[in-house]
Amino acid sequence: MNKLFAVSQLALCFVLMFCISSSGQNRPSELVGHWEHASGATRGKPEKLELFKDGTGVVDGGGSISWKVENKRLVLLSPMQGLVCNYKVSGYELTLAYDDGNSAIFVRKGKLGEFKAKQAAAAEAEKAKKIAEAKRALEQLPKFTDSRDSKVYRKVTIGSQTWMAENLNYAANSSVCYENSAENCAKYGRLYDWATAKTACPAGWHLPSDEEWTTLENTVGGRSTAGTKLKLSAGWNNDGNGTNEYLFSALPGGNGGSDGDFSNAGNYGIWWSSTEKDARNAWYWLMSFSYKFVDMSSNDKADLFSVRCVQD
Questions:
Q1: What is the CATH number of domain 2-111?
Q2: pTM of the full predicted structure?
């Protein structure tokens, strides 16, 4: 009799546990657990959530909260002041979409490393895809050959101008490869001081003036966004790539100094203009990994920058 009573009590416990875990307010069992912020909005929003089946929880490792699912939306109550958001559970990931337009991804405790590895793999795949797309687009452009050394260049027409779609790589006297590496010349073209840059372009082409650079900017929609539109869609540091929608294919070739130092490859593309500022300085045009616009400034004529030629 005692044995039968014990079995009945055990069965009742299982029934109660099932009712608690599946009852009330549409509460999905997937939400119950310890979640850590992985990416997205955090300001004024939780970074850690520990949610229990009874509708209580802990936020950010300290404050007690209550929670519920109402009309298929997650509601976080005091002290979150009734924060309401759409949610989606996928594997070990929880995505919260807040009403202010921001969103955040959380992962179950102990899964952050796995999530970051997945993100990194996805980023690498996207980068490889963009590089392949950029290469295909460039290959479709018309070509011309520099008769001086038989190097072949792509060219692109943007509005009323025809530009080289890559940096000049003619081995003029005083020109150098970035860090004296032939591999960098193949990737970025050569670097030139201003006096050399003025005469380095092949026959039928010339170093663009400030006026011609400005025409290019205006043709692609103005200086404030020209950098993004002219930069290649791969090859810039920290995901500072562009859309390359005009196939100008700007790359960050960096710069060199008369003292033999080099810097900024991957970060900045810097091109001479033919416009002189004064006896010592000339104007250059710059694109950066970190902003959308094209910048313009002047520098010592002895410094070494890239050259992009425009057709006569």
A1: 2.40.128.50
A2: 0.63
